[in-house]
Design brief:
The chain is an all-alpha fold and 408 residues long. It has 2 domains: 32-184, Helix Hairpins; 204-399, no CATH class. It contains 14 helices and 2 strands. The chain has helices spanning 2-20, 22-57, 68-84, 89-125, 139-150, 163-203, 205-208, 214-220, 225-248, 264-281, 285-307, 322-334, 343-367, 394-399, and strands at residues 130-132, 158-160. A two-stranded antiparallel sheet has the order 1-2. Helix 8 (214-220) crosses helix 10, helix 9 packs across helix 10 and helix 11 runs parallel beside helix 13. The radius of gyration is 32 Å and the shape is elongated. The chain starts with a helix and ends in a 9-residue tail after the last helix.
């Protein structure tokens, strides 16, 4: 009895020491730290999934600034352009052309890496309950397990041996499969929107020159007001599609046109210039359509400046000084176009230009686009008249019978 009673007293004393001693406290501390790592991993996974949903799936503008995708776009664009502006013109243009696709692919890689790390942190936080063919459990094994599960490799050299670990593995496999499916489905939608945008920009070459200007657009349609009205109606729809596609898929704004003297901003600016001039100087159905086109084009440029954090700024120079305006009016009057002139028309045109030119200048600075002039300068060749081997002059085009507009 003395021996048994001593053993009982020893066990009771040992239990009291364990309750008050350090080993249990250290175990509780490790457990709490593990839960914190698991919570951090869950927060990272949730953050990335919400960001990917808002960027790839949600067809609405999200104005929250602290988003991984927005931070990534702004940071990489600032670094990329800081290097690109120091290059010669041709390499600079090539670098700017490559940014859009590379930025998007790197964003997908960033999302995938964050999801893999997030699920690895949850596995590690819950105790790394894995069976390994080689090596010891730890964060490295959890990271490897997370990567093979996310990409659904199923190698079998690392397997979960705990209910929580198995649940996390199944959830991650489904997340990885769904993520890859959304990314694969997103790219065709993006490139279809890009193609629709570029078709009209290419068509503008023969209608307004390259780079396009409002003077050329007005001159080439001076003899056919009905065609000019139809063109404004087409560009009203194009401006609406541009606004919707670029607000829903902001990465599309970084995709540049095939030719260095064309861009979506140059086309939008030309449409705004021509519409403003028609509203201030013309009457009838053309002026009515011009007001509709101006409204949606101005809406597009303002919304895009807002979503890309480009505050309005005055143009560096006056894009339509009085001598240039007089030249445009004289050219149209010579073609037989009846115009409203005088101080009232001048003031109207000036007020309309103030509604969009600061936003156009801001977007041009943000994306390193050249904002086209209102009036064409020296003689330039349309893109359809040039190739890698020759330039077809205006006189040669006339001699060949391929002049497109009166006065060419």
């Amino acid at each position: 009895m003395g021996v048994v009673g001593g053993r009982r007293r020893h066990r009771r004393r040992h239990r009291c020491e364990r309750r008050r001693g350090r080993p249990p406290a250290r175990k509780d501390s490790r457990l709490s730290q593990g839960y914190l790592w698991a919570l951090l991993g869950f927060a990272l996974v949730l953050l990335i999934l919400v960001d990917a949903f808002e960027t790839l799936v949600l067809p609405q503008t999200v104005n929250r600034r602290l988003r991984p995708a927005r931070i990534w776009m702004r940071g990489t664009w600032a670094s990329w352009t800081a290097v690109a502006v120091k290059l010669p013109p041709r390499p600079r243009q090539s670098a700017l052309n490559a940014y859009g696709p590379l930025m998007l692919l790197s964003l997908f890689a960033l999302w995938a890496a964050c999801l893999i790390v997030g699920f690895a942190l949850m596995q590690w936080g819950f105790g790394s309950h894995l069976d390994l063919v080689r090596g010891q459990p730890g964060f490295g094994a959890d990271l490897y397990m997370s990567g093979t599960t996310f990409f659904t490799l199923g190698l079998g050299d690392v397997t979960p041996n705990d209910p929580i670990a198995r649940i996390l593995t199944v959830v991650e496999a489904g997340t990885g499969f769904g993520f890859l499916a959304v990314v694969i489905g997103y790219l065709p939608v993006l490139y279809q929107a890009f193609s629709r945008r570029e078709i009209n920009i290419s068509l503008l070459d023969a209608r307004a020159g390259s780079p396009p200007t409002a003077e050329e657009l007005l001159r080439r349609h001076a003899a056919d007001p009905i065609a000019f009205e139809r063109l404004l109606a087409d560009w009203e729809r194009w401006s609406a599609e541009l606004m919707e596609s670029h607000l829903s898929y902001p990465a599309l704004a970084f995709y540049r046109s095939q030719h260095s003297n064309q861009s979506w901003l140059a086309a939008l600016t030309t449409v705004l210039d021509a519409s403003a001039f028609a509203v201030a100087s013309l009457d009838g159905s053309v002026a009515r359509q011009a007001r509709l086109t101006f409204a949606i084009a101005r809406h597009a440029v303002v919304d895009l400046a807002q979503i890309f954090l480009a505050p309005p700024r005055p143009p560096a120079t006056d894009r339509l000084p009085p001598p240039a305006l007089a030249h445009v009016r004289a050219m149209l009057a010579k073609a037989g176009v009846e115009l409203r002139t005088g101080d009232t028309a001048d003031e109207k045109l000036h007020e309309l230009r103030r509604l969009y030119e600061p936003y156009v200048a801001a977007l041009g600075a943000r994306f390193l686009f050249t904002v086209p002039d209102f009036v064409a300068g020296a003689e330039r060749f349309d893109n359809w008249r040039t190739s890698a081997w020759e330039k077809v002059s205006t006189s040669r085009a006339k001699a060949a019978g391929v002049e497109l507009h009166e006065g060419d």
